[in-house]
Amino acid sequence: MQNVVFGIVTGSILAVATLGFALVRQTENFLNIAHAQMMALGAFVGVVLVDTYGMNIFAAGAITVVGLGALGVVLAAVFFAPVRHQGGTVLLFTSIGLALMMYAAILALFGTQARFYPDVSGSLHRIGGIGIATNELVIIGLAFGSIAALQLFLNSTGLGRAIRSVASNDDLARVRGVPVRTVSHTIWFISSAFGAMAGVMLGVLGSVNTEIGWHNILIVLAAAVLGGLRSITGVILAGLLLGIMMDVSALFIPTAYRPVVAFGVLVAVLILRPEGILSIQRRKDAVAA
Amino acid sequence: MTNPIFWVGVLTLALIYASLAMALNVESGWGGMWDLGIAGLLASGSYCYVILTAGPDLDMRFAPGLSMWVAWPLAALFTGLVAFAIGAPALRLRREYFLITTLAFAEIIRQLVVIQADFTRGTVGIPNINRPFDSFVSGREYNYVLLAIAAAAAAVMYLVTRQIGVSPFGRTLRAARDNEAVALALGKRVNRMRIQTFVLAGVLIGATAPVYLFYIRAISPQLFAPGITFTVWTALVIGGIGSIRGGLAGAFVLIVFTEAVGLIEVDPAHINILVAIEPFLVGLLLVLVLRFRPDGLFSERTAFGAGGRSNSRARDPRPAEPAATSGG
Question: Could you say which of A288, B29, B96, B110 has the lowest number of CB atoms within 10 Å?
Answer without folding.
Answer: A288
